TrEMBL record:
SUPFAM superfamilies linked: Protein kinase-like (PK-like)
Protein name: Serine/threonine-protein kinase AFC3
PROSITE patterns according to UniProt: PROTEIN_KINASE_DOM (PS50011), PROTEIN_KINASE_ST (PS00108)
Pfam families in the record: Pkinase
GO molecular function terms attached to this record: ATP binding; protein serine/threonine kinase activity
Keywords for the protein's UniProt record, in alphabetical order: ATP-binding, Kinase, Nucleotide-binding, Serine/threonine-protein kinase, Transferase
Highest taxon of source: Eukaryota
Native source species: Zea mays (Maize)
Protein kinase domain boundaries: 2-148
Length: 148
């Protein structure tokens, strides 16, 4: 991996970096978990859950995809596909403008499908919030104008 080109997110658990993967020649997101026992333990559980989610090809596009993980100097590093901004960042960037009803329906449909898939696997998402809902692409930077 090449050195990180930018920060995506910094939180209590650690940080997420945007990196260039020299093997695959693409940008990836790497979640670097702090070298603290409880965070490392939680990261290993997260890796197990992410691997279970990735098992069913039908729902791959609805849940973030783990590519691999590694331990670097006692930090758990989880490599993900690089996605766009979070729903929170999208809202903030658009000054919290209301979404058109069609867009709300589509977000809702996809969210319910992904949660239903998790429930089929007997998993419960315990931290659903706009910061944890990622858009597929950074191309979504403006709320589409509503027809009046």
């Amino acid at each position: 991996m090449k050195r990180a080109t930018s920060w995506i997110f910094v939180g209590t658990f650690g940080r997420v970096l945007e990196c260039w993967d020299r093997e695959t020649h693409e940008y990836v997101a790497i979640k670097v978990v702090r070298s603290i026992r409880k965070y490392r333990d939680a990261a290993m559980i997260e890796i197990d859950v992410l691997n279970r989610l990735a098992e069913n090809e039908k729902y791959r596009s609805l849940c973030v995809q783990i590519q691999r993980w590694f331990d670097y100097r006692n930090h758990i590093c989880i490599v993900f596909e690089k996605l766009g901004p979070s729903l929170y960042d999208f809202l903030k960037r658009n000054r919290y403008q209301p979404f058109p009803v069609e867009l709300v329906r589509e977000f809702g449909r996809q969210l319910l499908e992904s949660v239903a898939y998790m429930h089929e696997l007997r998993l419960i998402h315990t931290d659903l919030k706009p910061e944890n809902i990622l858009l597929v692409s950074s191309e979504y930077i403006k709320v589409p104008s509503t027809k009046v």
